From TrEMBL:
The keyword Signal applies. It comes from the Eukaryota. Pfam families: Methyltransf_11 (PF08241). This is Methyltransferase type 11 domain-containing protein. Residues 1-18 form the signal peptide.
Length: 393
């Protein structure tokens, strides 16, 4: 801006200075006889001057507008640079939970940093309102009963959720769990669950839900004397494989540890436990205390969605099982990442038991022959089950 003002002034000065050398303006202001050629000359000089003035002010305007554009760009750049660090306009408790913290002992070669960033799902910061709501509580007090909201936030992509500095709501009384192994097939005491988040307020209600109309996730899963009692016990030659038949495909005792993705109420892990195989079950609490139920049976549950990277090291698990949950509701690209992740955690020779995989006809084409694949048509949709082995090379 300053440079242009200087330029403008120089131009003005030039016209003022150069004018009189050819044309004495002072003399022209005297009442002398008008010489038409002189007048014309003056006229054209004036016009020239006016034209130059208007061009200069055009330049002024253009420069002013590009100047404000640059300022706006710089401000935007500063804002976007600052965002991940300072958390912008987020409440303090959110910043404490998600912002980086300086290491008290300084630079750590193990981390390659002198800062520690608390891990939270990258999408947490995309939903600032939900994040602020989730982190609104009395520090040191009781957490809000917001399980439904929190799980929805997690499923939307804020996974893992940030940690909080509050206690979950406590129960009035707590009854000791049923001893193992009876716990595997005993409906737990109602006191093991805080029921606020669920439509049902007791296990009896959840067991009876099986006979009620309406849709619920894993509707018959809490009835341990119903369908659960027979799941994976028999190979029906079509979609159902029996656990014993699957274990028999390997030398005895070599399938020892594994994972059941979306394992409902944990019956797969219970059946495996009876065969000395330790299975970790991931499950959501979709209008039912699935995680509490699995834990009460004496099995390990993890409240984790299928979107998250599996928290296991590569080449470690003997078996991964998944029924229903891995199917065409998952975006293709994410499903591909999930299948690679399962491959990663399985040891060489490990088994991937894809149980009742749901898909539409054309999607089946992506699977090659040479695997045990059974198909059962249901309307225009297909289910299939497969037992896949990770190559040993
Ligand atoms: C000087 O310019 C004015 C308008 O700009 C015009 O009306 C007038 O005729 C011109 N005079 C001469 C002598 O060219
Ligand atoms: C499980 O392990 C126990 C003790 O090691 C053993 O007695 C039992 O026979 C095993 N059960 C099966 C089904 O392999």
């Amino acid at each position: 801006m300053a440079a242009l003002l200087l330029l403008t002034n120089l131009l003005t000065f030039y016209f003022l200075a150069s004018g009189p050398s050819r044309l004495d303006l002072r003399r022209l202001s005297l009442p002398i006889a008008w010489d038409t050629s002189l007048l014309a000359h003056l006229n054209s000089t004036r016009a020239h001057l006016a034209d130059t003035h208007s061009r200069v002010s055009d330049l002024h305007r253009q420069l002013a507008s590009s100047d404000s554009l640059v300022k706006a760009l710089l401000a935007e750049l500063a804002r976007s640079r600052g965002r991940p660090q300072d958390g912008g306009d987020l409440p303090d408790e959110v910043k404490l939970a998600v912002a980086p913290h300086k290491l008290p002992l300084g630079y750590s070669p193990r981390m390659g940093s002198d800062m520690l960033h608390p891990p939270v799902g990258v999408a947490c910061l995309r939903f600032k309102e939900e994040l602020a709501q989730y982190m609104s509580y009395e520090v040191g007090g009781e957490c809000p009963v917001d399980d439904v909201f929190a799980q929805r936030f997690l499923l939307k992509g804020c996974e893992p959720l940030p940690r909080r500095r509050c206690h979950p709501k406590s129960r009035a009384k707590y009854v000791e769990p049923t001893p193992f192994p009876q716990s595997l097939w005993t409906t737990p005491h109602d006191s093991s669950v805080v029921w606020d988040a669920y439509t049902c307020k007791s296990y009896k209600c959840l067991v009876d839900r099986n006979k009620q109309p309406g849709y619920f996730d894993c509707k018959d899963c809490f009835d341990l004397q119903g369908r659960e009692k027979h799941r994976w016990m028999y190979d029906n030659g079509i979609l159902d494989y029996g656990i014993d038949q699957v274990l028999a495909t390997r030398p005895p005792g070599t399938i020892r540890i594994g994972l059941d993705i979306g394992g409902g109420s944990g019956t797969f892990a219970a059946r495996m436990r009876e065969r000395n195989v330790t299975i970790v079950t991931t499950t959501m609490n979709l209008d039912g205390p699935f995680n509490s139920f699995i834990a009460s049976r004496g099995l390990i549950s993890m409240h984790m969605s299928v979107s998250q990277r599996l928290p296991f090291f590569e080449n470690t698990l003997d078996i991964v099982h998944s029924m229903h949950v891995l199917s065409n509701w998952i975006p293709d690209t994410m499903l591909e990442f999930t299948l690679y992740d399962i491959y990663r955690v399985l040891r060489p020779g490990g088994l991937f038991w894809l149980d009742h995989f749901f898909c539409e006809g054309p999607q089946l084409n992506t699977w090659n022959a040479g695997r045990k694949v059974d198909r059962g048509p249901q309307k225009n949709e297909w289910y299939f089950s497969a037992l896949l082995e990770k190559p040993r090379t």
